[in-house]
Specification:
The chain is α/β, with parallel strands linked by helices. The protein contains 19 helices and twelve strands. The chain has two domains: 2-141 and 187-248 and 426-501, 3-Layer(aba) Sandwich (Rossmann fold), CATH 3.40.50.1820; 147-176 and 249-415, no CATH class. Helix 10 crosses helix 11 (284-300), helix 11 (284-300) crosses helix 12 and helix 13 (326-343) runs antiparallel to helix 14 (347-357).
């Protein structure tokens, strides 16, 4: 279930109550050029001197750039980088590179949805640029598993309670790595965040910007912070919303998410209990026990929906993926859980899940986001613990996060013995970079608030803005306060004068 997506970013539209504590964005000010004289390494000169050949691709312009497959061997094999541009609607200040997260979400598709990604002042003054990270979307998409295997992985026993179930889960956990190594042997060692950050610098040069102006969400914050670590003098104005610090181990990521998702599940249950159609009853603790008892029962007696079995793991996965944006997710989740719990009809619950994991009605996955998630996450943060460690963590995490903790602990096995090694993501200090605005939401289930505090402390020049709200990420989620802060910084380089927004 959620263990398969330890740092997943699943974006959804949402309108939240906001505030207007900051003035509107000030007069746009050009992004300063860097003080460094050189913007490229001699061995990479050919890559930096590329000029994109833009072609119309619907609401945007698209092109491809060449980058080295292996930055340690720039004269060797090359790969194509997919890039898209949505031109500014008015007086252009430069380019704003955007990334929605994942890892595995397409930045090309994200940029094409420009009007819902950034506010009109940003659309007016910046070209929106999306670059699919390597292995993702249109940039040499990595192949690891068939649709049937992805279904099998999602429905597998989430927390084994017998030796046979444990052996089966250990074997299944090897499937993503073995599949990536078999189907994408040349690519598997070269899809890490460090390499994707290097690709961003080549893309920045190709569009003619002296510095990188950037808006990254969730995993996109890790990509942005990694870029800042590698190229601190080439950072323009950078906003990192929904922080994923590079300093965290995969164990720390999974535990943090288990606790944060459990907190938001309690919020969902509390909200559900205020509605007549809620299938749960009693107080929050009692209702939570009811829900977990129902999930446990599905492991012995799964529901059937068409040709699919709905196990406890699959149902819990559906619940977890619909806790990201409460105002939008909670009503839909409540309405889907009612028939599933009371009438044994899980069709609506499956539909919610499928919409979040890009699984079509025909059972085909519409993109490779799930596979790319494993490939990037496990290369960045391989798990080095033992099977005994996982057993222990499952027990410990179950105390603080009884619904999601054990399964997230067992999910660590997917990144154990990953069949490739890359340049790991480590602490990002970015000494010498200009101010970086970090935005963190108080009750964010996927990137807990504490991670924003950690990232702001890691970065040498960061400023933390707290959104005192809920949901995953904060910009354009209903707070005029946050929106004005982000847009004021991107447009005029003006950091917010306050530390928090409602």
């Amino acid at each position: 279930m959620g263990r398969r997506r330890q740092a997943a970013v699943l974006m959804a539209p949402v309108v939240l109550a906001g505030c207007a504590l900051l003035p509107s964005a000030t007069t746009p000010v050009p992004v300063p050029t860097p003080s460094a004289a050189s913007t490229q390494e001699p061995t990479l000169a050919d890559f930096y001197e590329q000029t994109p050949r833009w072609v119309n691709c619907g609401p945007a312009e698209c092109a491809t750039l060449e980058v080295p497959l292996d930055y340690d061997d720039p004269g060797g094999q090359r790969m194509e980088l997919a890039i898209t541009r949505v031109p500014a609607t008015g007086e252009r200040l430069g380019s704003l590179f955007v990334n929605p997260g994942g890892p595995g979400a397409s930045a090309v598709a994200y940029a094409k949805a420009a009007d819902s990604v950034v506010g009109s002042p940003i659309r007016e003054h910046f070209d929106l640029i999306g670059v699919d990270p390597r292995g993702v979307g249109l940039t040499s998409p990595i192949e690891c598993m068939s649709d049937a295997q992805l279904d099998e992985l999602a429905a597998a026993e989430a927390a084994p309670d017998s030796s046979s179930e444990e052996r089966a889960l250990v074997a299944l956990a090897r499937m993503p790595g073995m599949g990536c190594a078999t189907s994408s042997p040349d690519l598997i060692a070269h899809v890490g965040t460090v390499d994707s950050a290097r690709d961003l610098d080549i893309a920045r040069a190709a569009v003619g910007d002296p510095t990188l102006t950037y808006l990254g969400k969730s995993y996109g914050t890790l990509l942005g912070a990694t870029y800042a670590e590698l190229f601190p003098t080439r950072v323009g104005r950078m906003v990192l919303d929904g922080a994923l610090p590079g300093s965290l181990t995969t164990e720390e990521v999974s535990r943090g998410q288990a606790i944060a998702f459990e907190m938001v599940l309690d919020d969902f249950i509390a909200d559900c209990l205020t509605h007549d159609d809620c299938p749960l009853s009693g107080d929050v603790d009692a209702a939570g026990d009811q829900l977990r008892s129902w999930l446990d029962g599905l492991d012995d007696a799964p529901l059937t929906s068409g040709d699919r079995e709905v196990t406890g793991a699959l149902a819990a996965y559906a619940i977890l993926t619909n806790l990201y944006v409460p105002d939008y997710d909670f009503p839909r989740l409540r309405e889907a859980l009612g028939p599933a719990i009371e009438d044994q009809d899980a069709a609506a619950l499956l539909a919610l899940l499928d919409s979040r994991i890009s699984r079509g009605p025909d059972g085909r996955y519409e993109n490779n986001s799930s596979e790319a998630f494993y490939a990037v996450s496990c290369l960045d943060r391989p798990y080095v613990g033992t099977l005994d460690d996982v057993r222990r963590l499952a027990t410990e995490w179950g105390k603080d996060a009884p619904t999601f903790g054990p399964s997230l602990a067992w999910g660590l096995l997917a990144c154990r013995d990953w069949p490739a090694q890359g340049e790991p993501v480590t602490r990002t200090r970015a000494e010498g970079a200009p101010p970086i605005l970090v935005v963190s939401t108080r009750r964010d289930p996927a990137t807990p608030f504490a991670w924003g505090v950690d990232l702001a402390e890691d970065l040498a020049s960061a400023r933390l803005l707290t959104y005192e709200g809920d949901g995953h990420t904060a910009y354009l989620k209903g707070s005029a306060c946050v929106d004005d802060a982000v847009e004021g910084y991107l447009l005029a380089g003006k950091l917010p004068e306050i530390d928090s927004c409602d």
